[in-house]
C-alpha cells in the first residue's frame, strides 16, 4: 500500500533552509509540485509521478492560487489567504470602480506573503462581463507577470 505521507529527498527540511529563514527577510522559497490551473490537476512526469516545481515556479503557483482562492471560505486557510474577487460578481459598479477594487484585492492577497515585495502595473481588458487583467508581481528575488480573469 502506498504511503499516505511519502518523504523524498526533495522534501527534507535542511539546515540551509532554517538558516535562510533566520538570517533572511523571513521569506523562504521552497519547492512544490507543478499544477495546471487550466486542466485543474497536477502535472505528471512521463513516469506518472507529480512533477516538481522549482522555487520560482512554486512561488508563481502560490500567487495564482492565492488570487483564485476565495478568502474566508475554507477553514484550512488562514484569514489572510485568498482574495475577495467573488464579492464583485453582480455588484453592478462601473468599470473604473471595479478595476480599483480588483487592484486592491489582488495586491492585498499577494502582499500577505513575505516573498512578495510589490504588485503593480495592472492592465485591464473588458470582454462583456468578464474582466481579464494582468499585473507585475515583484518578489524579494525577481519579478513575474500574471494574467487572470474575473467575471463580474
Query: Which CATH first-tier class would you pick?
Result: Alpha Beta
Task: Find the count of extended strands (DSSP E, 2+ residues).
Answer: 7
Share in helix = 25-40%
CATH topology title: Nuclear Transport Factor 2, Chain: A
Q: Helical stretch count?
A: 3
Indicate the CATH architecture.
Roll
Global geometry: globular
Instruction: List low-pLDDT spans.
Output: 18-23
Helix and strand sequence: HEEEEHHEEE
Radius of gyration: 18 Å
Q: How would you concisely characterize the structure shown here?
A:
The protein is 26% helix and 26% strand.
Describe this structure in words.
This protein is of the alpha+beta class. It has one domain (29-151): Nuclear Transport Factor 2, Chain: A (Roll). The protein is 26% helix and 26% strand. It is built from three helices and seven strands; from the N terminus they run αββββααβββ. It has helices at 15-23, 55-68, 95-110; strands at 32-33, 35-36, 41-42, 52-53, 116-127, 130-139, 143-151. The strands form three sheets. A three-stranded antiparallel sheet has the order 5-6-7, with helices on one face. Strand 5 (116-127) and strand 6 (130-139) form a beta hairpin. The radius of gyration is 18 Å and the shape is globular.
What would the keywords be for this entry?
about 150 residues; Nuclear Transport Factor 2, Chain: A; 3-stranded antiparallel β-sheet; two-stranded antiparallel ribbon; 3 helices
Amino acid at each position: 500500500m502506498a504511503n499516505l505521507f511519502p518523504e523524498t529527498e526533495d522534501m527534507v527540511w535542511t539546515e540551509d533552509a532554517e538558516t535562510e529563514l533566520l538570517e533572511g527577510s523571513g521569506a523562504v522559497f521552497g519547492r512544490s509540485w507543478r499544477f495546471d490551473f487550466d486542466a485543474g490537476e497536477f502535472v505528471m512526469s512521463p513516469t506518472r509521478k507529480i512533477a516538481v516545481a522549482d522555487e520560482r515556479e512554486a512561488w508563481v503557483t502560490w500567487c495564482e492560487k492565492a488570487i483564485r482562492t476565495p478568502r474566508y471560505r475554507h477553514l484550512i486557510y488562514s484569514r489572510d489567504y485568498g482574495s475577495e474577487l467573488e464579492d464583485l460578481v453582480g455588484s453592478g459598479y462601473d468599470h473604473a470602480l471595479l478595476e480599483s477594487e480588483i487592484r486592491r484585492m489582488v495586491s492585498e492577497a499577494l502582499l500577505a506573503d513575505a516573498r512578495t515585495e510589490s504588485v503593480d502595473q495592472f492592465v485591464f481588458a473588458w470582454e462583456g462581463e468578464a474582466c481579464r487583467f494582468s499585473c507585475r508581481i515583484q518578489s524579494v528575488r525577481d519579478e513575474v507577470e500574471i494574467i487572470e480573469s474575473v467575471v463580474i
